[in-house]
């Protein structure tokens, strides 16, 4: 816990939010990292730090890091060389070690995942390190936790859909990370790197299908569809196909009659993705 006073913690929080606005600019983020700014943020996140180590401050710090890294290869490279992947892995393990507190820490985990997604996207170097650290085990564990479903109790969500926690910013970020890397690395390499046994992999795919069928969160729904399309080769044999088809038909009443080429002027990205999945499921 922090020894800092509430008033000083409030100042730290406001300073972090101001910084986050500034480093949304790519050039500002590069200048910030080159001047050693990232190291100051790492210091806040260090387990022994006494700088207002509250969940709110930690979550905002991860938000700032994610903003600095987002679509910024120079800052990504600097962060990776500074050892940020080890920091991510340590925090992931710490936050997922007590499953009873995962939902309680959802905002903090979601912000950490935002930063993690930012450093992994289009960075083969950080992805290799992430696989080396077995980071996927933490991600898959979180996936099941945010569907109210641990790796050891993964049948619960599949057998009782009402237990699925499917409206979560953290869940959307988990799906985004899986989607981004599956697109960049290819499905076969993804499968081998996931290092999951067949039962867990099948239940991951089934749960992904149930999310599409049951989530009323538009962002989660869209990302689940995109992730399933990218991993369709891995998931095809274990999907609840009829359930997903019925969901898509109920959401898109004319989906049976749509042309194989959809005009982007008429349909948004979610519609296009839903139609692509519909076509795959009917094959």
The assigned structural class equals mainly alpha
First and last CA, distance: 56 Å
Shape: elongated
Average pLDDT, rounded to a whole number, is 81
User: Given the structure, what is the number of helices?
Assistant: 17
Q: What are the low-pLDDT stretches, counting only 5+ consecutive residues below 50?
A: 149-163
Rounded to the nearest angstrom, the radius of gyration is: 20 Å
What is the helical fraction, as a range of percent?
55-70%
Elements, N to C (H/E) = HHHHHHHHHHHHHHHHH
Strand content: under 5%
- How is the main sheet built? none
Number of strands: 0
Summed up:
Helices cover 69% and strands 0% of the residues.
How would you describe this structure to a colleague?
With 283 residues, the chain is an all-alpha fold. The protein is 69% helix and 0% strand. The protein has 17 helices and no strands. It has helices at residues 6-22, 26-34, 37-45, 55-69, 73-81, 84-96, 106-120, 124-132, 135-145, 155-159, 169-185, 187-194, 198-214, 218-230, 232-235, 241-251, 269-282. Helix 11 (169-185) runs parallel beside helix 14 (218-230). The longest helix is centred in the first third of the chain and has 17 residues, at 6-22. The chain starts with 5 loop residues before the first helix and ends with a helix.
């Amino acid at each position: 816990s922090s020894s800092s006073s509430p008033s000083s913690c409030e100042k730290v929080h406001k300073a972090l939010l101001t910084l986050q606005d500034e480093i949304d600019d790519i050039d500002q983020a590069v200048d910030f990292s080159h001047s050693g700014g990232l190291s100051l943020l790492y210091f806040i996140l260090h387990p022994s730090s006494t700088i207002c180590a509250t969940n709110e401050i930690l979550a905002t710090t991860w938000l700032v890091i994610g903003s600095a890294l987002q679509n910024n290869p120079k800052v990504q490279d600097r962060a990776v060389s500074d050892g940020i992947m080890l920091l991510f892995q340590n925090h992931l393990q710490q936050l997922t070690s007590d499953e009873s507190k995962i939902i309680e820490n959802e905002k903090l985990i979601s912000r950490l995942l935002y930063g993690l997604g930012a450093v992994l996207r289009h960075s083969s170097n950080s992805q290799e390190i992430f696989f080396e650290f077995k980071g996927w085990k933490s991600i898959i564990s979180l996936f099941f936790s945010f569907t109210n479903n641990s790796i050891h109790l993964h049948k619960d969500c599949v057998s009782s859909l009402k237990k699925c926690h499917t409206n979560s910013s953290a869940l959307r970020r988990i799906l985004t990370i899986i989607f981004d890397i599956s697109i960049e690395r290819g499905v076969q390499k993804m499968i081998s790197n996931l290092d999951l046994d067949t039962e867990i992999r099948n239940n991951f795919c089934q749960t992904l299908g149930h999310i599409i069928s049951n989530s009323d969160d538009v962002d989660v729904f869209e990302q689940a569809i995109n992730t399933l399309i990218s991993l369709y080769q891995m998931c095809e044999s274990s999907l609840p196909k009829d359930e997903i088809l019925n969901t898509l038909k109920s959401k898109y009443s004319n989906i049976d009659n749509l042309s194989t080429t959809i005009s982007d002027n008429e349909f948004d990205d979610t519609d296009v993705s839903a139609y692509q999945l519909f076509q795959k499921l009917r094959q």
